[in-house]
Amino acid sequence: MSQREHRIFNPAMECISRDELHKIQGERLAATVKREYENVPVYRERMDAAGVKPEDIRSLEDLKYLPFMEKTDLRDYYPFGLLASPKKDIVRIHGSSGTTGKPIVSGYTRNDVDVWSEMMARTLTAAGATSEDIVQVTYGLGLFTGGFGAYQGADKLGAMVIPMSSGNTQRQIMMMKDLGATILCCTPSYASYLGETVREMGIDPKKDLKLKAGCFGAEPWTEEMRQRIEQLLEIDACDIYGLTEIAGPGVAFECLEKNGMHINEDHVIAEIIDPTTGEQLPYGRHGELVFTTITKTGMPMMRYRTHDICTLTADKCACGRTLARMGRIVGRTDDMLVIRGVNVFPSQIESVLVGADGVAPHYMLIVDRVNSSDTLEVQVEMTEDMFGDTVSHIENVRKYITAQIKSVVGIASKVSLVAPKSIPRSEGKAKRVIDKRNLH
Ligand code: ADP
Ligand code: ZN
Predict the structure, then answer these.
(1) Which of 96, 134, 173, 352 would staple 244 via disulfide (CB 3.0–4.6 Å)?
(2) Is pLDDT above 60 for 140?
(3) Each residue's pLDDT tens digit, 325-343
(4) pLDDT averaged over every residue in the chain
(5) Neighbours of 350 (CB within 10 A)
């Protein structure tokens, strides 16, 4: 058990008994399904096709009878086809890039913005924030949910917000230092880059900065990356999870126990399913995460398939919250690479690279097909020290990393150690994979 002091924003909900929670979830689910059936033609058609009527959904156990929604549905009914409220009640639009064609958008009513702000206020509080804190928001403020989510949560806490948005690293650090920011919100890849830059500028985080914690999410990262960020910036680094379709960041958040992300289950129901059969899987098993919103009124989502792979647990957490936790996202079913028939997640390779001496965790995976066989090249940057080292030492490190990747992932790869700073940095979500197989 940890000796930490745990702050909880809404103890009545965050520490509710599981039985009471399930009762509330069942009631909210029934009301949401009724609303969806009455107001959104697609939901009505899908439920009719599945032979399910709103009155069949009375408790949490009935969830499994409902049809799934997919990201393609958001594209097909873009922009307003899934609204369950009149357009005049929508007060905000957010969207995500989407990889092809049109972005996907979600409409928020005043209620939805309030619910989301509460989820982010819980998130920041779990990382130790109070109204006394100064929160630097380095997630982009725009259509992307990251920036607004963090801003709203900090605002609800009554903290002081610095809405920097993304970009201009030197200036971020100057503001962080001058204003004495105590909480940082950004992607983990950018946090690690900020940390490196802080060190390069000769700034000692302990003496010159006031940062104490960070809420980092929006992309997959590893335990090794957490340790690196914590060391570089001398802070607690907490994982946070969210997606535009469900709300934005804050759907789930880590407390300072850092043992998985508590899900805001009074607002969303989480399930893990087998991605091929759609069957529900028990807690503890890896599978695809599915969310059903139960308080959203603008664009509620029924059994939305996230394509993110993780596990769930409802085991007791030392912080006192009873909300179930999701484990780290190990990958997405759609960014899982299949290389020579083997499933490979970029996060597996990252865990090897972050643990290896002589390289910095800036990397790019290049997948190609040569003579009908898949190839994987792992480009990773050397540290400055390593760059000036002897050729034989560099070669030894290269061999070591190649062997580690083979043992962790199970396939051979070509590892290339590239010059420091030669892999492009990202200010938002990092791009880690170039798959050239479809270009041939
Ligand atoms: P996009 O689909 O364009 O990336 P979103 O900003 O809505 O748009 O991103 C949501 C996705 O980001 C999630 O489905 C998940 O794959 C990823 N994500 C968000 N937070 C985390 C996290 N803490 N760990 C891993 N992946 C995350
Ligand atoms: Zn906890």
Answers:
(1) 96
(2) yes
(3) 999 998 888 777 889 888 8
(4) 94
(5) 22
User: In this model, does residue 15 exceed pLDDT 50?
Assistant: yes
Pocket lining: 235 vs ligand 1, CB cutoff 6 Å:
no
- Residue ID of nearest Cα to ligand 1 atom 16: 308
Ligand 1 binding pocket includes 364 (Cβ within 6 Å): no
Residues 400-428 have a mean pLDDT of 92
Q: Say how far apart CA 69 and CA 71 lie, in whole Å.
A: 7
Mutate to test the pocket of ligand 1, among 104, 144, 308 (most ligand atoms within 8 A of CB): 308
Lowest model confidence (mean pLDDT) among 159-173, 255-269, 373-387, 420-434: 420-434
**306: which 2 tokens?**
């996230």
**Residue 96 in contact with ligand 1 by CB distance below 6 A:** yes
Q: Summarize pLDDT for 36-93 with one digit per residue, the tens.
A: 999 999 999 999 999 999 999 999 999 999 999 998 899 899 999 999 999 999 999 9
